[in-house]
Amino acid sequence: MPASTKAKRPVYACSECGWTTGKWVGRCGECQAWGTVDVQAAAASTGRTAAAPVTRRARPITEIEVTEAASVPSGIGELDRVLGGGVVPGGVLLLAGEPGVGKSTLLLELAAQWARQGRRTLYVSGEESAAQVRLRAERTDAVHPELYLAAETDLGALLTHVEEVGPSLLVVDSVQTIGSADVDGVPGGVTQVREVATAVIQRAKSAGIATLLVGHVTKDGSVAGPRTLEHLVDVVLQFEGDRASRLRLLRAVKNRFGPVDEIGCFDLADAGLLEVPDPTGLFVSRHETPVPGTCVTVTMEGRRPLLAEVQALTVETAIPSPRRTSSGLDSARVAMILAVLTKHCGVNLSKHDVYAASVGGARLVEPSVDLAVLVAAASAATGRVAPADMVVLGEVGLAGEVRAVRHLGDRLREAARLGFTQAVVPEGTDASTVAVPGLTVTRVGDVRAAMRSLAAAPTPLRSLD
């Protein structure tokens, strides 16, 4: 039988990640999801593509105007910080986050701020009716005549709205709810998401429309749909937050127009999302008098230094295997630090349950908080109180050494700005780095020296007894 008359073999693809295989399987070989592999039509090969007219003549790079790609402030300072200055006309941004974290609220506020500057905005919702979006806009004071609303789930209708309204900013909430009648599959599937994203991006690039897409996430926190979606867009933002906390963090996972090491902080209140330009107070508790088991450190979120407080509590126990519980800290690293404290500082915790936590729901995963955890645990075990005006920085090694941390100068300047007068930092740090006015810096090489320096501080450790 000629090869041209042979039936094409079916291709099976995963609806979650786009992984393909030649035969059906119950579990995806890439994302390990069950029941997501289904048959799809094999793509026909044309063999050769003929030359076609170009849309715009190629020019030397020196003749290209950069003003067309200049960022425009969005009106939300924390968002502009993450984006690297603002929204770029023709740029496509993908905002992902868990359900209920506040993605729609953030983009509705962005759309309103954009409209208040006299620029037309189109907000297309595939999850809510226009009346529901209007009700939420009234609650958050995001109503403006230049903000247009549409409730659509069809790609063709969405593109028609864009043609009729002519916006400079387009918000699509969400890309998984929009479908195309010309493509097989249900909205949210791999083929549909790829088709919708490609069509919207092409329209945004050709008309210079800044476009923001809301993306769903899977149970492990990654963006749902094909990985191609993240490659197509210019910026991928992750909106994070704990349901038990009002604090929301905006991070850049990918950014073609700016840095990816900045974060934006927001407070999810009844009136919407409020910017938090100085979130340090959220992670440091206020005590009338110093208490044992507490220590303040400075962590880096992107390029922003934030003061955070580590707390520890030790309780005697009769069980052979004492508990080691942590919240907001890496449990394995806490156990390692407690072992170093026992071995090199002589603080025996073998008959004590130890609880360690960060204040305000902060997630402290940097090694620079190691020394603060050690000091807090030692303070809790001995009942002695560390100075309230001291910050402690340093990574702790298994041999008891204290290692250097990055961006030490920025951390110390932030501590001095907030009124701290003492700091314990790793030894070997350049003198010019720690020369901060109003801050007395003590450099230590190991944990024993760190404990000795605390005892000899201007405000010494003192017993509550």
From TrEMBL:
Q: Where is this motif: RadA KNRFG motif?
A: 254-258
* Keyword Ribonucleoprotein appears in the UniProt entry: no
Which residues bind ATP per the record? 97-104
Superkingdom of origin organism: Bacteria
UniProt domain RecA family profile: residue ranges: 68-217
Q: What UniProt keywords apply to this chain's record, in alphabetical order?
A: ATP-binding, DNA damage, DNA repair, DNA-binding, Hydrolase, Metal-binding, Nucleotide-binding, Stress response, Zinc, Zinc-finger
- Pfam families, sorted: AAA_25, Zn_ribbon_LapB
Coiled-coil residue spans: none
Q: SUPFAM superfamilies given for it?
A: P-loop containing nucleoside triphosphate hydrolases, Ribosomal protein S5 domain 2-like
Q: Which HAMAP family does the UniProt entry name for this protein?
A: RadA_bact
Chain's role: DNA-dependent ATPase involved in processing of recombination intermediates, plays a role in repairing DNA breaks. Stimulates the branch migration of RecA-mediated strand transfer reactions, allowing the 3' invading strand to extend heteroduplex DNA faster. Binds ssDNA in the presence of ADP but not other nucleotides, has ATPase activity that is stimulated by ssDNA and various branched DNA structures, but inhibited by SSB. Does not have RecA's homology-searching function.
Q: Which family does it belong to?
A: Belongs to the RecA family. RadA subfamily.
UniProt comment concerning the protein's domains: The middle region has homology to RecA with ATPase motifs including the RadA KNRFG motif, while the C-terminus is homologous to Lon protease.
Q: What is this protein called?
A: DNA repair protein RadA
Q: What gene name does this entry carry? A: radA
